[in-house]
Amino acid sequence: MAERIVIGAGATGAAAARRFAANGDRVRVITRSGSGPEAAGIERIALDATRTDELAAAMAGAATVVNASMTAYDTWPETMPPLYDSILAATERVGADYVMLGNLYAYQETSGAVSERTPLEPHTRKGKVRAELWRQALAAHEAGRLRVTEIRAGQYLGRGAVSAFSLLVPAHVAAGELALVLGNPDAAHSFTFTEDAAAALVAAAGSGTAWGRAWNAPVLTVTLRQAADRLAELKGAPRPRLEALTERDLTLLGFSAPIWNEFREMAYMGDRPFVVDDGDFREAFGLKASSLDEALAGM
Question: Has residue 257 been placed in a domain?
Fold first, then answer.
């Protein structure tokens, strides 16, 4: 029975905690509010993870720390580095392995499929933040201070997922209304089901060979229109109408919540095909993406 720490209780972090517990591990979920899944074997701890000394004390005895935390999307350049610095330092202090939940923002913009060999040369602010967080963790690994890996997920699908798709599509599809989407609705796009990302985190944590590199999580590649059409079928709703958000639409949405202003710099991931190669992970761990129906269930 291993001791696992999961920091963050979003859809993927919570799913990873449940999977660890189902495997018989003891799990501590750390969030600022003390939220997290209620299940046998899971302890929930309310703690600000930027308080390194308190965090290290809460993580004492852990074999693995999974960092599935994220700050407010519009504050990443200011708030992500100190949070991740604290988690890395505390993990090193307790002698645990470190598994980061990342995304695809750090990769260089490319017209081909994005693999782990795509250079980390992002042109966006959020991409640069993600690249630097990984480089710092990898440097600690290469210095022999701890073992580190990162699972990089695509835009999320799944119950409780927070993504452009989840924010813009399901409610309008269910109501039979026009859905405005981010990017070209007919461009191929690689999505990650939250449960697949969680399975990848758990697999990496239990591996002897995952360390010292990053892995693209399993993806399913469809167009926004295909995903929306299938979601409508599952909900018994009319075939959806989709249109791309305009600059004016984003500006108006930005008055309601700052997150909408942040989507502009990531528009390149939706304006044209954005396809991910997850072959390394599938070959190494024998895990592949779930079906589209599984990913859309409950959305």
Answer: no
CATH number of the domain enclosing 73: 3.40.50.720
Distance CA(84)–CA(65), nearest Å, equals 12
Q: Would you state the structure tokens that stand for residue 276, as one six-digit string?
A: 């991910």
Task: Provide the residue type at 161 as one letter.
Answer: A
Regarding beta strands 179-181 and 242-244, do their DSSP bridges make them parallel or antiparallel, or are they unpaired?
A: parallel
Residue 247 counted as domain residue = no
Tens digit of each residue's pLDDT (9 = 90 or more) over 265-287: 998 999 999 999 999 999 999 99
Instruction: Write out pLDDT tens, residues 42-89.
Output: 999 999 999 999 999 999 999 999 999 999 999 999 999 999 999 999
Which residues lie below 8 Å from residue 261, measured CB to CB, with a gap of 6+?
74, 250, 254
- Prediction pTM value: 0.96
125 is a domain residue? yes
297: which 2 tokens? 């269930």
Kindly calculate the radius of gyration of the chain based on its CA atoms and give it in whole angstroms: 19
Q: Are 91 and 4 in contact (CB under 8 A)?
A: no
CA distance 178 to 196: 29
Confidence of residue 251 (pLDDT cuts 50, 70, 90): confident
Give me 128's structure tokens: 């640069």
Parallel/antiparallel/unpaired status of strands 155-157 and 213-216: unpaired
Give residue 85's domain range.
Answer: 3-153+194-217
Domain count along the chain: 1
Beta bridge partners of 99: 66, 149
74 CB contacts (<8 Å, ≥6 apart)? 258, 259, 261, 262
Residue 275, SS3? coil
